[in-house]
Amino acid sequence: MAFSFISFPLFSSSLFLAALIFTLLRRTRKKHTFQLPPGNTGLPLIGESLRMITAYRSGNPEPFVDDRLCRHGGRLFTTHLFGELTVFSADPEFNQLVLAGEGRTFESSYPSSISTLLGRRSLVLMKGSLHKRMHSLTLTRFASAGVIRSSLLPGIDHLIRLNLRSWGESVRLLDQAKKIAFELTVEQLMSEKPGEWTDYLSRHYNALTDGFFSVPLPSFLCLNAYGRAIKARKKVAESLMELVKSRKERKMREIVCKTETRKKDMVDELLEAEEGFTEEEMVDFLLALLVSGHETTPAMMTLVVKFLTDNPSALDLVKEEQVGIRERKKGVQEALEWSDYKTMPFTQCVINETLRVGNIISGVFRRTVADVHYKGYKIPKGCKVFASFRAVHLDENYFEDARTFNPWRWLGNTSKDSGKLSAGAPTFTPFGGGQRLCPGYELGRVEVSVFLHYLVTCFSWEVAEKDKLVFFPTTRMLKGYPIHVQRHRSL
Ligand code: HEM
Predict the structure, then answer these.
(1) What residues form DSSP beta bridges with 203?
(2) For a FRET experiment, which of 130, 180, 386, 475 has its CA 20 to 30 Å from that of 455?
(3) Domains along the sequence of the chain with CATH
């Protein structure tokens, strides 16, 4: 979730509107306690939500945070967002406490409208030991460097080329990136090739994810995006259920006839899991994993192209690097390999810098599950907290000339890129950290790298329509970044 403000790939104005409605009805506004960081809770009920949304829609949200940090001093302030008193953190040390304290002092917290769309057994909603086990399964069996290298990369290469081959003279980049990312995830999770079934699923997925950013009116009304999303979820779940059932039957046959020779995918892992998941639980899990990559990787593909277009000298270097890789291959058709991915240092700098400046996930919401003491403040149990990655990524204290896109800053400094928590407080956390560290962090990077390779070695492009980067409800180019493309080389 991601208003750009959101965490896992979901965020939303729905949070805001739903919160407003429910808060008006329930009048549950919390009282200040003196140990909270300083702040201003804004207008009654609405709090500072409208101010914040206006800032994040403007394309320049920084003054919203800068003004408050400057006014109150320190790196934490208290505000009132989406119907709740919220401690906003622009402090990498505090963000580390939040990420590392998952399950002990903090837990992720989503409104029920989002839980309904995702399903109870989605990874983002799982807690405790089941979450640990399934997070690790997702990472090691679906998205680790080892799996990507040994089995996913050829498929990624093939599918990206297939898509780019079909491009006409003009494309809306975000739409194309969404199509690519969706087809890739379906193939990786369920071994299903693009075709009628994936097109059908993809249509309903678009309706489903639109629901994350809309007002959750009662679903039976089906009048707005939320109602349509609930309907779409039903369709997606039905299709996934058919797939799970047929895979279960096939597995039984293979076991009986001892003919199981296929490469395992996520469906196999779920069918074999020691927890003995029900079919409904497997459907929830798969459905939500597909959502995770649906908003993030496509936004990343679009932003990286936007930043390169705006910075021709960086684009020239990426081209040089990628053309060099292509020239070392035996022919134009030879697929990229892991060793190629590992020898594109400047491209990785561009990806890091796009993650830092673009902030596809602006931060994560959590709720304290115990009183938290920090630098003289006491944040009570049950309080909402927003750990802002964006505020740290764009802070001069941690990055020189922080608000300028400068991929060269990463040269010789790639150790910071994993998003993993280390001894010091990390200042670069585009993929979160701790127990909920994004399991797709390497996969997302590889997909963007392969996409860039074919884009810069085979095409040139120019912007077709003036567009604008916005950060609410998600980080994206407002018009989807329409471009005119010209192909110079076959794929
Ligand atoms: C550039 C791309 C991506 C970015 C910036 C990104 C960012 C993030 C962040 C910040 C979180 C942490 C949320 C939290 O702590 O609450 C997260 C979680 C997650 N991401 Fe990603 N992500 C990306 C791509 C992907 C991909 C490709 C997948 C896989 C299909 C994926 C799957 C997930 C899942 C399942 C979670 C939830 C983990 C949990 O709660 O245990 N992400 N992502």
Answers:
(1) none
(2) 475
(3) 13-487 (1.10.630.10)
Query: What residue owns the CA closest to ligand 1's atom 3?
Result: 296
Average pLDDT of span 231-237? 94
Q: Give 399 Cα–ligand 1 centroid separation in angstroms.
A: 24
User: Measuring from atom 15 of ligand 1, which residue has the nearest CA?
Assistant: 436
The tens digit of pLDDT for each residue in 162-189 reads 999 999 999 999 999 999 999 999 999 9
Q: Which atom of ligand 1 is nearest to the CA of 189?
A: 30
Predicted TM-score (pTM) of the model is 0.91
Q: How far is the CA of 282 from the centre of ligand 1 (A)?
A: 19
Q: Which atom of ligand 1 is nearest to the CA of 437?
A: 12
Within 7-124, residue ranges assigned H as helices are 13-26, 49-57, 62-72, 92-100, 112-118
Question: Residue with the nearest Cα to atom 41 of ligand 1?
Answer: 436
Q: Is 296 a pocket residue for ligand 1 (Cβ < 6 Å)?
A: yes
- In this structure, which residue's CA is closest to atom 21 in ligand 1? 438
Distance CA 336, CA 410 (A): 24
The structure tokens 């030879």 sit at 334
What distance in Å separates the CA atoms of residue 99 and residue 8, rounded to the nearest whole number?
13
- According to the per-residue pLDDT averaged within each range, which of 133-137, 263-267, 312-316, 420-424 is highest? 312-316
Contact 294, 162 (CB under 8 A): no
Q: Quote the tokens at residue 56.
A: 């994040």
More confident residue, 368 or 23: 368
Task: Read off the pLDDT of each residue in 11-36 and give the average, rounded to a whole number.
Answer: 50
Residue 44 has pLDDT above 80, yes or no: no
Distance 33 CA to ligand 1 centre (A): 34
Instruction: Give CA–CA dist 402/7, Å, rounded.
Output: 22
Across the range 181-207, mean pLDDT stands at: 94
Question: Pairing state of beta strands 84-89 and 76-81?
Answer: antiparallel
Residue 487 backbone phi and psi in degrees, to 5: -90, 135
When pLDDT is averaged across residues 436-461 and rounded to a whole number, the result is: 97
State the CB neighbour count (10 A cutoff) for residue 459: 16
Residue whose CA lies nearest to ligand 1 atom number 40: 124
Dump the DSSP string for 210-237: HGGGS----GGG--SHHHHHHHHHHHHH
Counting atoms of ligand 1 from 1, which one is nearest the CA of 431?
10
Return the structure tokens found at 44: 């009654």
